[in-house]
Amino acid sequence: MEAxxxxxxxxxxxxQGPQAHLTINRPKARNALSPTVVKALMDGLERAxxxxxxxxxxxxxxxxxxxxxxxxxxxxxxxxxxxxTHEGRRSYGKLLTRFQEARKPTVARVNGHALAGGxxxxxxxxxxxxVETADFGTPEIxxxxxxxxxxxxxxxxxxxxxxxxxxxxxxxxxARDALALGLVNRVVxxxxxxxxxxALAGKLAGKSQAVLALGRRAFFTAEDLPLPAALEFLASQLxxxxxxxxxxxxxxxFMEKRAPKWNDR
Length: 265
Fold this sequence. Notes:
Oligomer: single chain
Number of strands: 11
Number of helices: 10
Low-confidence stretches: none
Distance between the termini: 35 Å
Shape: globular
CATH architecture of the largest domain: Alpha-Beta Complex
CATH topology of the largest domain: 2-enoyl-CoA Hydratase, Chain A, domain 1
Mean pLDDT: 93
Number of domains: 2
Radius of gyration: 19 Å
Order of helices and strands: EEEHEEHEEHEEHHEHEHHHH
Strand content: 15-25%
Structural class: alpha/beta
């Protein structure tokens, strides 16, 4: 094991420069989401946020075929009773929320198929880069289930008709179609995946972390507000923003035609 790498349950945690990489490490199970994986991802996010050297979190799956195939069907029935099992399922929803509440930006490195709850993880990340061979979809209906929790994010990414088509038919989309729908930001050949992720993450790492955190929180809060309330809320956030040290530094750097030196505050 190299320096900077640790195993957190069934998730690998590795710091590469300013990036913390979380890798779902269950390739034989198509990187399915077990309760252990969900908890380990939560723990990994906490670890990344506590490390001042980390400026971006990258989420991916082990191997070259599957990013994450969704929930582990072999672990659907828990041994702690119905209510305990229900609480366990709710933890996936909490994980999706946790990604959006993270103070640091997140990028999905979609190394393969992203299906069901795995697609939910892609949507929960701020940005996503996918290999051109990846498929995206919600095939739960084909086993008598429905993509209940991740559907909340899908509704926020695509229009009603396309979202309903995906969840009702279970059809899988090729990566280029997912790009056209706005489910991912980039689609690249496998040989270019790491470079594309590094370039995107590098841009995020070079921004003010304080302003990124403020802006991300404002973005997700405003998303669910009626327009007048959203505009009023965002006006208040702009007033906070202009008082930030990094706002002053950014404006000064622009006027002086130099690169800003962020203090992340």
